[in-house]
Predict the structure.
Amino acid sequence: MLIAPDFDQDALTLLMSKKNRIILRQKQFVKPTMQVKSILNGYLVQDYDLAIEGRGHFKQVTKRAATATELEDLCFALKACKHLKSNTITLVKNKQLIGMGCGQTSRVDALKQAISKAGVFEFDLKGAVMASDAFFPFPDCVEIAHHAGITAVVHPGGSVNDQLSIDYCDAQDMAMVTTGVRHFKH
C-alpha cells in the first residue's frame, strides 16, 4: 500500500503495473489548532504543539560546543521528544532513537527508564545525546546521563538553577544547548 499527497503520471503508471498494489491519494486537511481529550469529570483542552526547533534555535550554554554529529542527533532527539508524553527524555545516537522514557512524574525517572530501555536492547550509550521536554533545575539528570556515556544535552532551559547543570556539564566536558521552548504533551 502506498499513500501520498499526489503522484506524477509516470510514477502512477509504474506503480499500477503491479497487481494487488493499493494506491491512495491523501486528501488535504486543515490541522486543528486545539486538542481536546476527555478526562475524569471533564476535558483537557490544549494547543497543538506546532513549534519546530532546529540548530538555528539552539543556544550554546556550555564551554564545549556540540559537534556536527551531536547537533544532528540533538535535532532528531528533540523531534522525538516533542511527540512523546511529558515528562520525556530521549536518547539518540547516529540519528537513531535508542532509549526513551516518557509519561513519568519526574525527569530522573524518565531518564532512568530511557537508559534501562537502551540497555535491554544492548545499545551503547557512549557518545549518545539526550533531549528533555523539561528544564534541569538540578544537575541530577546530567550526572546520570554523563555516567551512562551521554556527551551532549538539549533542553528548554529557563530554570533559576540552570547554572548548576551547566557547571556540571562544563566540569565533565559535555555540551549543552537550550531552546527556550518547552514541549509539554498530556
